[in-house]
Amino acid sequence: MIRYTTAAEAVKLIKSGDSVYIQGSVSIPEVLVQAMADRGGELRDVKVYSAFAIGRGEAPYCKPEYKDSFLVRSLFVSNPVRKWIAEGYGEAIPAFLGEIPDLFRRGIIPLDVTLLNCSRPNADGYVSFGMSADLAVSAVECSKVVIAQINPHMPFSYGDALIHVSKLDACVEVDEPLVELPTVEPSEIDRKIGGYIAELIPDGATLQIGVGGIPNAVLSALMDHKHLGLHTEALTDGVVPLIEKGIIDNTEKKILPGKNLASLALGSKRLYDFMDYNEDLIVKDVAWTNDPAIIRQNPKVMAINSALEVDLTGQICADSIGTMIYSSVGGQHDFMYGGALSEGGKTFIALPSATSKGVSKIKALLTPGAGVVTTRFQTQYVVTEYGAAYLQGKGMAQRARALINIAHPSAREELERAACERFGYSFLRLKK
Is 233 part of the annotated catalytic residue set? Predict the structure, then answer.
């Protein structure tokens, strides 16, 4: 039997100087977060940690009058805190997503309080974190106080994201629908990119795939494949048809064969209903799902990730627009590394050749201040709507030629000049 209290009473457990972790994905416990923000006038120096999270709007604690009440330290810059950090009030902490749980567990980032959004309890008294095991598992383990919303809209997922109600220090009953992300319909450019990648994916492959139009286009192009597996960081609507049709059956995976594996999920109510009490879906601590030593044990890992820009040597920027931190490294590095070590594995960076304003995403040099998420030493395939460039084993000039060939035609002449100046005869001697 759960003893419920009000959100206002529950957040009185938070004290000035505490470090608070707020659950992410589409699981932000917004009632508790608002109640915490409402105490901004009396709290000071509360360090707020969050990671990948989709909110309905900006976080309520990100207000100028609260700048000394809540110190925002983002482990993945998402929409609730992006503007606040860009304005210099908060800060981003660079870290591989799969390694952050260890920062909690070793006390490098100490935690006092975790705020959760949980399912109703099952018959044994366990509630589920539902959509977000990722950092929540380690945060709960390392916090002195755990406060939870008990929400009928949160699906009950199996795996690591479970806690017995007796371990909760305060519970608040809410009726709060989860944030939904409509499935992004792939554009014609997305479909071309997805088609190129799908052609390179063999039957029996294990998929790691992200969010958005290009990942959805890849998934749509896999309908004729067989015996695919799923071991990914983020689960989205796009995989559901492949699972329902038996195309993703996980029969050839080595790690938990027969099970779909993810660390977090986001999408529509269809996905959330699909997840609820689904024993074929396991949601795990991101330290486990993103461990390259575990990832590599699966055969033919296909790691499909995106970028904001790529330079002519294959350096991948995926977290910043110049000096402005836009997101984070997330799990890109973890899966690019683990996928490359997998027997028969392939790694892909997929992006349109140009922005919506016509600016080339393949650049002679990265924008000043841009961060390198995947180094030139790790990049295998870069794919645009003009084809797939394979970079591994190629010299600098060869890489430049391959990338120019898949760049937007309007940018190729300028990129050619830059490559000639940088690489000299080693580039000039290469045929187009």
Answer: yes
